[in-house]
Specification:
This protein has about 300 residues and is an all-beta fold. The protein has 1 helix and 20 strands. About 0% of the residues lie in helices and about 50% in strands. The chain has a 4-stranded antiparallel β-sheet, with no helix packed on it. The protein has a 4-stranded antiparallel β-sheet with strand order 5-6-7-8, with no helix packed on it. It starts with 7 loop residues before the first strand and ends in an 11-residue tail after the last strand. It is globular.
Amino acid sequence: MKTSEINIRDPYIMVHQDRYYMYGTRSETCWETADGFDCFVSENLEDWEGPFEIFHRPEGFFADRNYWAPECYCYKEAFYLVTTFGCESQKKGIYILKAKAPTGLFEIYSGRLTPDDWSCIDGTLYFDNEIPYLVFSHSFEDHPDGDMCYIELSQDLKTSKSKPELMFSAAEADWARPVPFAEAEFGMKGDVYFTDGPCLMKMEDGRLYMTWSSWSNHGYAVGAALSASGTISGPWRQQKKAVYPENGGHGMLFRNRDGKLKFTLHFPNDKYQERPQFVDVKIEDGLFLLEEEKKKDGNEV
């Protein structure tokens, strides 16, 4: 099938042995009960084999919803799927699955990696000097400023080794706006912000960048931040303007088979219409920019 025929949210690309493996959230079950994840395989980012179901809810497994944002990593000769799970009786959290191949089948590997009393979504891994960190969104249900946090993981990725550290809040970004439906959908009054979809990468200029999503003037959007220290601890400085400002989000960075930096996200942000999009990236004067976006006055850190 073609990229334009694939209906997923939160696309994630892993390049392995000259093939592209794409994971994502099933659009049809994103906001309802859910039971699995799929993978698509390609050699050119346009023609895909699949979907191949890589995980199906085991009998008795607690999670029956919030099967969100699976990300696959090849690590120490195995494959690890970082994902969100939830159920009605407990808050959403981040877990890791494990398999022998990128197409699974994946099995439950870790327990809950984020705090039991926190609602957390959209985990991603970042390795600094071989230390694995889990970066995730501390969801707005707990804190209306919308926080991005990180935790150090054990070398086997099975347990958390530290308490969460705050990286930044969505309310700090000039481009981010309170979600207009917070009271109608969640019963939350006042300004409510959210973060989701983090992705970290150290670029050729030696700087550490993060892309992440929130709400903007034109709906779901992607912004970028730069670590002043070059490490995960920041401080993180937000670019003034969203890099993808309208009706698309939850992106991630990867290098294609030719080594070219690419960015993928889902667009539009409308149920049953979401499709993976692939965009070229450039770094210009310390700014993270998408290739079709020209540098604009005021888009600075």
